[in-house]
Amino acid sequence: MAIGTTDEGPLTLFAALWNGQRWKVTKLPGKYSVLWGDGAAGPSLSCASATSCVAAGSHAVAPIHQPLNLVDLGLIWNGHTWRIDNPGGPGGVSTVSCASAGRCVAIGLPGTATLAKLWNGRTWKGIKTINP
């Protein structure tokens, strides 16, 4: 599985599945633009297996002439389809890593404080962090 953004017009998120011979674009729910993950490259992706992937990142919601408001979004792959699962606030995750289908950690540095969220296979939960 690969996930990223197109560079035509406004950045648009897409995902593609490799079957060993060719890539197939997979449909993602919703549309997100402006900023994803670490820079504009798209959200971070981690797959524990062919039927379990989590993509996590922040997209920016910015009313005209207002500061950016980061909103986190998680995308969950079950081997057939993607679904949205909102990690909740505060926003700012930029990378995710999964040890298993029910054990993923998304982290970020949305300002001067660190941010961490745990995916347990059903829901997201904030994790207390330290700020050295």
Feature tags:
mainly beta, four-stranded antiparallel β-sheet, 11 strands, 0% helix, 50% strand
Report the mean per-residue pLDDT as an integer: 83
Order of helices and strands, N to C? EEEEEEEEEEE
Which runs of at least 5 residues are low in confidence (pLDDT < 50)?
none
> Structural class of the helix and strand makeup?
mainly beta
Q: How many separate domains make up the residues?
A: 1
Distance between the termini: 35 Å
Can you summarize the main beta sheet?
Answer: 4 strands, antiparallel
Number of strands: 11
Helix content, binned percent: under 10%
What is the alpha-carbon Rg in Å?
Answer: 15 Å
Quote the beta fraction: over 45%
Strand order of the largest sheet: 4-5-6-7
> Helix tally?
0
Task: Please state the overall shape, judged from the principal axes of the Cα atoms.
Answer: globular
